[in-house]
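Box 3.1 A note on notation
Throughout this textbook, protein chains are presented in two layers. The first layer is the amino acid sequence; the second is a token string describing backbone geometry. Keep the layers aligned when reading.
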Amino acid sequence: MKGNAGSCPPPEELLAHLHGEGTKETEAHLSGCGSCRSRLRGLGALDDLLGGLPPAGAAPSGSCPGEEALRRFLSGGEPSLEAHLSDCPACLERLVSIADVASSPAVPLPGDLRTRLEGLFQRRSVRPTRRRRFPLLRRIPGERPAAAWFAAAAAALVLLALAGVYGRRSPSPPPSRETARGETPPAPVPEVPEGRPEVPESPASRRDERERLERALEELAETRRRYLEEARAHDLRRLEEEQREAEARLDRLRREEIRAAEERARRESSPATTAAAVAVLERAEGEVFLLDRSGRRPAAAGLPILEGQGLTAIGAASELALAYPDGTRLELGGDAVMTLRSEGAGERRKGVFLARGLLRADVARQPGGAPMVFRTPHGEATVLGTVLRLAVEERRTRLEVMEGKVRLKNLAGKTVDVPAGHQAVAASGVELAARPIDDPAVQAVIGFVLINADNGLPVPGYEPIPQGAVLELPRLPRRLNMRADTRPERVGSVLFAFDDNPRFQLQNGLPYSAFGGASGRWWAWENPKPGPHVLTATPFTGAKATGAAGRPLTLRFFVKK
């Protein structure tokens, strides 16, 4: 867009704008007037040129040309003066001062003179300069302010007359003083956004712009930091909420499975034929309930258990112990369900139906022909007198015999005698056979070790951690973890259950850390709670708790602050 010559600001206003003292009206006019922006660029170039000349008032030497010679030079004559003017600041200043432009805003200079003057100004512009404020006013000696403004306008118009020559020669700007001195020129200035004038900025405006951009960057950095903090907090809240929902769903599912096991246990139990107690609840910890055909109700130690009644321990931290008059003792772990029932039509035999969970039995020697029978959904075990452990999982029953001998029968009717130190599994599609408990082919967790999470080393005195250990936190390292040792040393994976969480941690590679870790680093047990805790580790032949499960190990310990 070209501006109207009658409405364009005079040179003094353009100069004021160039040095940061212009008005908003001038700035608004420049944003829409390409002609005045070109004039302003010319004034900026002239300002740089004159800023490098010697102080005002430098007198010409005896060899300097007179005023008439300079006027003839301006009219296209005296070409020999060009070499003198390129080396004489005083004569170049006099040439600018005597330029008569009052009668014509566009000085009609001959083409060859334009070229010579352009080269002259370029040679002068590469001299080292020290930028001064308003050099156009200071370069004209002996003038009053008004006359100085007029002379400045005249000099500006002389340069503006050469603007067409600059534009026609090349789209690139003339060499800067930095380039002539061999210095690296400044980086190109980015395009001015729409709505702002494409004009050279003064030092003051550049400083203001730099400060504005620095403030903007600081605000952006602060906004980004707040956003990341809020995003992390939001993600953490969302993850915690999802974790709570998953734990709640898992707890509901676990309790539904326990309810289903209780219902199955009721169906398998025999109707009570006597009011006499067959056993006594010796110990009850956590959530322990008595089962009968009417439902379940809380059970406490000392409660007599009748024929046909059952017991449930809910939660990994729950357990109970049941004692018979002949000294037989049963221990039931968390999330386990069992009922008491008689076996055989003639001489009555002790019987237990284990619907779910882990049971350990220390069976006193039974009368001849009246062995004790343990039944599960996958088979039954008959004993005359022994110490055994029976674990009922979703698809199999595992028997381990510590003392004596136990006969195990699966649903297909096949039987196997399992001697002391051996184990067998009853499950569909699994060979029923007795194998040594210490058989290397049988995966097992053999112990737990307390680890200093800062250095990954065992804590002295806790390798392995004994059953019932009391962990006094003030006497231990600040950051703790636990390691499960397996046989063989490397297994497919290890699944940890901790307190009421049956899938607390899954480790697919060494070391098998109960509280997690990565890349050789041990994570710490966050905020250990005082009181009793139960940790169970189960090995699997496959990764991610797949394949066959090996022999688990359960550790019960206490935390003391």
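The mean pLDDT is 76. The first helix runs from residue 11 to 18.
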